[in-house]
TrEMBL record:
<keyword id="KW-1133">Transmembrane helix</keyword>
<feature type="transmembrane region" description="Helical">
    <location>
        <begin position="126"/>
        <end position="144"/>
    </location>
</feature>
<keyword id="KW-0443">Lipid metabolism</keyword>
<dbReference type="GO" id="GO:0008444">
    <property type="term" value="F:CDP-diacylglycerol-glycerol-3-phosphate 3-phosphatidyltransferase activity"/>
</dbReference>
<keyword id="KW-0812">Transmembrane</keyword>
<keyword id="KW-0472">Membrane</keyword>
<comment type="similarity">
    <text>Belongs to the CDP-alcohol phosphatidyltransferase class-I family.</text>
</comment>
<keyword id="KW-0594">Phospholipid biosynthesis</keyword>
<dbReference type="InterPro" id="IPR050324">
    <property type="entry name" value="CDP-alcohol_PTase-I"/>
</dbReference>
<feature type="transmembrane region" description="Helical">
    <location>
        <begin position="150"/>
        <end position="175"/>
    </location>
</feature>
<dbReference type="Pfam" id="PF01066">
    <property type="entry name" value="CDP-OH_P_transf"/>
</dbReference>
<dbReference type="GO" id="GO:0046474">
    <property type="term" value="P:glycerophospholipid biosynthetic process"/>
</dbReference>
<comment type="pathway">
    <text>Phospholipid metabolism; phosphatidylglycerol biosynthesis; phosphatidylglycerol from CDP-diacylglycerol: step 1/2.</text>
</comment>
<dbReference type="InterPro" id="IPR048254">
    <property type="entry name" value="CDP_ALCOHOL_P_TRANSF_CS"/>
</dbReference>
<dbReference type="InterPro" id="IPR000462">
    <property type="entry name" value="CDP-OH_P_trans"/>
</dbReference>
<dbReference type="InterPro" id="IPR004570">
    <property type="entry name" value="Phosphatidylglycerol_P_synth"/>
</dbReference>
<feature type="transmembrane region" description="Helical">
    <location>
        <begin position="6"/>
        <end position="24"/>
    </location>
</feature>
Length: 191
């Protein structure tokens, strides 16, 4: 059973493909199925970490895959929605979120070469949550026309909150770790 948490994490990435395929259609029933798959993928995010701790099988693979699956799910889905449904998701907001993602990830990838591990900020986790709420609101609004008047402002507000929490967390990470720019890299093993 030690493989279960990683399988759940991988399923989150795999479920994204049919979600986007269903969203490329024009029938509200397809959007409803997309929403159901989206919720199932979100549920795996809750269950995989719990299962890893419960089964005592926390692994390096899981520690790598879980945040990767979160980034793929939130960012790829928002890019897709912004390109397919620009009235719902402004592309410029998504591009600002992606720019922040690249900046933070680049900085984080430099840190281990300097002997430092940068923890994920709570605001960074909130950013991902707001991104997923925005995506979920759009999908729900597409699937149920009666929800569209509520879903559109929820999506926009969630994107604004994602940008705010994302850029505040990025600034915090950069300020707390400003000394990394002056450190000398560790000698690395070649393989």
């Amino acid at each position: 059973m030690t493989w279960l948490p990683n399988l759940l994490t991988l399923s989150r990435i795999v479920m994204l493909l049919p979600v986007m395929g269903l969203l490329a259609e024009t029938d509200s029933a397809d959007y409803r199925w997309a929403f159901a798959l989206f919720l199932a993928a979100g549920l795996t995010d809750l269950v995989d970490g719990w299962a890893a701790r419960r089964l005592n099988c926390v692994s390096n693979v899981g520690a790598f895959l879980d945040p990767l699956a979160d980034k793929i799910m939130s960012n790829v889905l928002l890019v897709f929605l912004a390109c397919r449904y620009p009235a719902w998701i402004p592309l410029w907001m998504v591009l600002l979120l992606l720019a922040r993602e690249f900046a933070v990830q680049g900085f984080r990838s430099m840190a281990p070469c300097l002997g430092v591990m940068i923890r994920t900020e709570r605001l960074s986790k909130l950013k991902t949550l707001f991104q997923l709420i925005a995506a979920g609101a759009v999908i729900a609004g597409l699937g149920w026309e009666s929800l569209s008047t509520i879903a559109a402002p929820v999506a926009l507000t969630s994107l604004i909150l994602a940008l705010a929490s994302g850029y505040i967390s990025m600034t915090t990470i950069f300020i707390r770790n400003a000394d990394l720019w002056s450190r000398r890299p560790l000698d690395m093993e070649s393989r």
